[in-house]
Specification:
alpha/beta
Length: 285
């Protein structure tokens, strides 16, 4: 079970372990460099304790500025904690690695490469033992899996936002990661495309069952996809307010799940939490 607690207690099933993690950022302005005064620190997250089980789908939600992306970047190895440590399979994270695939909201595709070449480049980087032809075949397989077999040779500027995000999903999965990290992967998409890709990711996850950690602002999205939902408190010095299990049976069909009483009860609970945290932010400003 994913959990937050005052003390750190990973279990045998623990895949990602976050132990007493805090992260601060220096806040400077133009006068800092002139006066050489000590920079102020912004405490983004504080004393985070968390364990995530293998092969579970976990979502992180919370008000804007609560440190969701900060926490995800730390798990990705794109940044280091100010205090505490994060480990994957009992090994402390020192930086990015092929065991963690990342999907960003802005796609992060290389515009001078085709969809196929974007995925192929990731495969070649993560799997250097593969031959050129093997890497290309693997890239083709994953683009076909996300329904882009007819758009493989198009450049990012020639495809829609939804197709770009599917390329990003294919690229992240093609390196065969143990953990998939997603930072609001559908946030920039229109409602119809977002719904389509949510269902597609759900189907892909049902087949592969890797560990997924996703940031989202959508309560419905978190409930549809997740086994557990991590609730963040408002920042600064954000903490984990609660961890909510989502005991909805799998496989999940949207038109059935969204009418389930459990779905509706948890949705109300999450809405109340976000509303309370938003009010808390407003009262402090």
């Amino acid at each position: 079970m994913t959990q937050s607690s005052p003390t750190f207690a990973p279990t045998a099933e623990c895949h990602v372990a976050v132990e007493q993690v805090s992260k601060s950022f220096a806040i400077t302005d133009k006068s800092f460099w002139l006066s050489r005064k000590k920079a102020n620190l912004y405490q983004a997250i504080q004393d985070i304790n968390l364990t995530i089980r293998k092969n579970t789908f976990v979502s992180i939600i919370g008000p804007s500025g609560c440190g969701k992306s900060t926490l995800l970047n730390l798990i990705a190895g794109l940044d280091q904690p100010t205090t505490g440590s994060i480990s994957v399979n009992n090994r402390v994270i020192q930086g990015p690695g092929p065991d963690r695939g990342i999907i960003f909201q802005n796609y992060a595709l290389m515009p001078w490469l085709t969809a196929l070449q974007n995925v192929e480049y990731a495969v070649e980087t993560a799997c250097p033992k593969l031959t050129k032809s093997q890497a290309r075949e693997r890239a083709r397989d994953f683009l076909t899996m996300v329904g882009l077999e007819r758009a493989m040779n198009r450049y990012p500027k020639q495809i829609s936002g939804g197709m770009k995000q599917r390329v990003a999903i294919a690229r992240a999965l093609s390196i065969d990661p143990d953990i998939l990290l997603m930072d609001e992967p559908f946030g920039a998409l229109d409602a119809l495309t977002r719904t389509y890709l949510q269902d597609e990711v759900l189907q892909i996850w049902e087949k592969n069952r890797i560990t997924v950690v996703m940031i989202t602002h959508s309560i419905e999205e978190a409930l549809l996809l997740s086994d557990e939902i991590i609730l963040m408190s408002s920042g600064p010095a954000a903490t984990i307010a609660d961890v909510i299990p989502v005991p909805l049976p799998r496989p999940r069909l949207r038109n059935i799940v969204e009418k389930d009483s459990t779905f509706l009860d948890i949705k109300l609970r999450l809405e109340e939490h976000l509303l309370d945290e938003t009010r808390a932010v407003e009262e402090r400003t």
